[in-house]
Amino acid sequence: MLPRVLALVALGILHLPWSSTQGCLSKQQVANTIRQMQKLLSSHEAAQLQNMRNLKKQLTLLQGNIQKQVAKRNESCTLLPAPLNGRRLGKKTLVGHDAHFLCDPGFLLEGSETRTCLDNGTWSGQQPFCKNINDCTSNPCANGGTCVDGTHRYSCLCPSGWSGATCQAPVYSYWVTLSNSSFSRQPRCAENVLGSRQCSCDTGFQMRAGGICQDVDECQLFQSSRLTRICLHECVNLPGSYRCTCPAGYRLQADKSTCSDVDECAENQHNCSRGQMCINVFGGFRCLQPECPKPQLNTSYVKTSAAQCERSPCPMDSKACQRAANSISFHYLPLQSNRTVPRVLFKMSTSRFVGDSLRFAILGGNSQGMLAVQRADRQTGELMLTRPAVGPTVLEAELEMSEFARKVPLGKHIFKVTVFVSQYEF
């Protein structure tokens, strides 16, 4: 800009009128021209400074807006899920805001009732879950009655000679056969066109001697045999019917007879603390935090993930470190009791195969001959269950996969495998 201004001023000088007597500019004309140049330069300099100030101001505002947006993102937490069979109150996730949790009727809240969004973007407390309230825990049925837990309520199956909501009232002998409200009742009778009386029983009852409808015990008839059993787990006889139940950690399926495992880890129904892994097993869960081996013989490991340890670089002269495993990984497997064999439980291989052969072996554990290693192909080994495992029990095996090039060892990996065998076969 400045050279252009000077050029224009120079052109202006060239066009100034000449003195008629001397043929050159007068001193007054030269002075006037210089003053005009100074004024022009001063005005352009002021305009440039103002433009620079405006640009600097805009850059400062832009930087402040970016910092505010970054700070705003950092001042919030992720939205917490509502527990199964419960609700979450409060949708704001900014720092300082609270989230409250409630359970549906018939369920009890386990964990933190209120959690607060902290400055570091995490929530205080533990993720809560809603636990079903077993109404039979207090043993409400008297006189040897059997308590059947229901949804938000319970019912008592009374033995012979007792009746009432909690089997608290004795039934006198002269009306036991006619008014037992649990497992015997009066038949439905009507007179036909011939004038004779015909009686029938409701579904689930059968006529017995004396004209009384007695409950059919489906559990006793069918549950004792594997070929005819009507419930996968346990059967509870009810007046005119029956009910299948599942053990803790399982959920009754829509068919009302089979049970499926509840994944407490996926449904946030666990109490594992920060830093622990939630491992779902059949009928429950485990909170685990595997640790790397302690440093020894110039060999140390660093944790690269929740279930993986990598060996630190070895000193040049440390053969013990160079012979140690390059990495150690931890694996946890759920297994039902008494499964058929042989069965593949775990596979091991490598994605960075640079040698010409791999060898697989079991270094230790407590499998007591139930586990073995076999080669599936050139780059894959398999951990096999060779004998049925009856639970509940825990099987452990330490596996080694070694890589060789022309019989020279290149490295090895350790797999620490833990198998949690459940109590049940489903």
TrEMBL record:
Stored Pfam families: cEGF, EGF, Fibulin_C, Sushi
Q: Where in the numbering of this chain does the EGF-like domain appear?
A: 132-168, 215-260
Q: Which SMART domains match?
A: CCP, EGF, EGF_CA
Disulfide bonds, paired cysteine numbers: C103-C130, C158-C167
Limits of the Sushi domain: 75-132
Q: Which positions make up the signal peptide?
A: 1-23
Cell compartment(s), UniProt? Secreted, Extracellular space, Extracellular matrix
Which family is annotated? Belongs to the fibulin family.
Full protein name: Fibulin-7-like
Q: Which organism is it from?
A: Gekko japonicus (Schlegel's Japanese gecko)
Q: What is the lineage of its organism?
A: Eukaryota, Metazoa, Chordata, Craniata, Vertebrata
The record's gene field reads LOC107126189
